């Protein structure tokens, strides 16, 4: 039996009973002959509570100290889980991210992993112990400061450790039974997939699917680490995310993998931009210098009489104020008329590698939205994805309509969210 990395989210270790349930599952894997490395998130809503507490103390917490605060949640989880495992008669050692050898850059609150040097983890495994690692955190390469990896950081920690340790699989335990064709909280008839390729999963994650984060899947694809997404609340087989189906799976790659949605974005429209070379570059250089990632971009055809055009783009709501401020400061240099900001939008995406060889997918997608009475504001496409921006109030109805139109509905309501969050 080989080495297995298991990751448990906050809903799986939300309380003492949850921690004991997770400990038993880990011990069972050890009894089956596996070497086991476990990555844990903070218990329940601990991280959100720490963020709220920091906001009460300081409106703009210093990045270094904010990271030091937030990593406390995972350290609590790892220590309690190690105690629970020892209570079941097995040896376990807990490690912070820095002790586990997770080396990052020095960007606080959203650091990226540079390297993983898991010497202490290997030693613990060689001694027959279960290794438990605090997710979401590392140590900066230059200043040796504690850093956090941002949203989905524990998933990324798990996959990075799996790659560094040459694990057979990285098991991501959550509060749903796998990856579904849509968010189970929105589409009760969403169907669990037995297998999904990295390419499709990357698009779903980038389009708003919350069961796996984009950085985690990107890392797994780069190092070819199979991910098994499953629930810690049931013993059911989950969804495999990999280049090829695993084991005895005989899975035909579907034309459409799923429908994702995202209501965490906002739209900025730069009005009255001179229609000449270099203007768009100046706008997006300003956004890039503010360290803001953008998603969809649309430029209108310029009016012949004015030689002016409008440029719209979407970005995370959390970066909206920063983007507007940066553009206002650059208004004189760029020469646009005004800015419009809209945070009441939602994005719906249809994903599937099969659509590039199947005509009619685009037409069916837009017909489904039309039949549901959903108006489209922006459109973006790739070879395996079609995304549209609509009003936020229309998102749930649009997702259900598209899901049904492409025959993705299950015959039964199998999409269960055990912990209530979908993560």
From TrEMBL:
It comes from the Bacteria. One of its GO terms (biological process) is homoserine biosynthetic process. Keywords: Amino-acid biosynthesis, ATP-binding, Diaminopimelate biosynthesis, Kinase, Lysine biosynthesis, Nucleotide-binding, Transferase. One of its GO terms (molecular function) is aspartate kinase activity. Its EC number is 2.7.2.4. Pathway: Amino-acid biosynthesis; L-threonine biosynthesis; L-threonine from L-aspartate: step 1/5; Amino-acid biosynthesis; L-methionine biosynthesis via de novo pathway; L-homoserine from L-aspartate: step 1/3; Amino-acid biosynthesis; L-lysine biosynthesis via DAP pathway; (S)-tetrahydrodipicolinate from L-aspartate: step 1/4. PROSITE patterns: ACT, ASPARTOKINASE. It catalyses: L-aspartate + ATP = 4-phospho-L-aspartate + ADP. Substrate binds at residues 47, 74. PANTHER family: ASPARTATE KINASE, ASPARTOKINASE. Belongs to the aspartokinase family. This is Aspartokinase.
